[in-house]
Amino acid sequence: MTASTKRKIINKFILSLSTLFAIIGVAFLFWILFILLKNGLSALSLNMFIEDGAPPGSDGGLRHAMVGQLILAIGATLVGVPIGILAGTFVREYGKKSPFADLIRDLSDIMMSAPSIVIGTFVYALLVAPTGGFSGYAGITALAIMMVPIILRTTDDMLGLVPNSLREAAIALGAPKYKMIKDVVYRGAKVGILTGILLGIARVAGETAPLLFTSFNSNFFETDLAEPIASLTVTMFNYATSPYEDWQSLGWGAALVLAGFVLGLNILGRIWLSLNHITRKKILKKRKR
């Protein structure tokens, strides 16, 4: 057997193995979606979206939990995204290979792998215990802390893929460094940065453990962040593990809504990036003409 034939056999084997595991992964994904649709579709109704939590046996809904989850997710995004992007920019564009930048990268990797319940207990000791009460602010803080390392590392890696020649060209034209980063580097890395943001939002959107220690939960409609606030994840856990069939049904409905939210967010992000790419191509074609 020649070396070329041997390489082709190994290549086909690895390709077949990779395809097999990819199919297995996709099969599990569709299996999960099938179970969610099977058990969650029956719970979907108008009452679920317009009614708040109610005692078992009554026509309650999940409006309070959906609104609370949206408030927590938006709050964490408003806090975590700017911090993560700016921290990633500092590490890549200013810190580079300095010991301090490497320390931030190492700490970011550690925080990404830290159990969410540990972050929840940390925020509990930092904000909940001293104030004597759970609050939406504490929940937002916990989710933002979980989001920052993901966005930081993604921003750092994506900025590193932008060729240095683009930076040098901008500096040669007289652009200050901040303007070079804003108008040149960010544009070249915006797809990857947005992907990191979506990953961060998807990560915190399904978290339950840190919210149990921070925002706690409420079975009532509440928008005051200084008070315990409902969340879809904690409500889903409480309802799904209850002995009441109507609450269990609402728990499946909450799981379906949450999965649809995360999936829809990723799809919308990809569509936006595709439209942006198509628009950019059209502009470049017009300039060439």
Distance between the termini: 55 Å
- Biggest β-sheet strands, sense, barrel: none
Could you tell me the number of beta strands? 0
Q: Supply Rg.
A: 23 Å
Strand content: under 5%
Shape: globular
Tally of discrete structural domains = 1
What do the pLDDT scores average to? 89
Top CATH class: Mainly Alpha
Kindly name the structural category.
Answer: mainly alpha
What share of residues is helical?
Answer: over 70%
Low-confidence stretches: none
Number of helices: 11
Overall CATH architecture: Orthogonal Bundle
Explain this structure.
This protein is mainly alpha-helical and about 290 residues long. The chain has a single domain (about 60-289), classed as MetI-like (MetI-like fold), CATH 1.10.3720.10. The protein is about 80% helix and about 0% strand. The chain contains eleven helices and no strands. Helix 3 (about 65-95) runs antiparallel to helix 4.
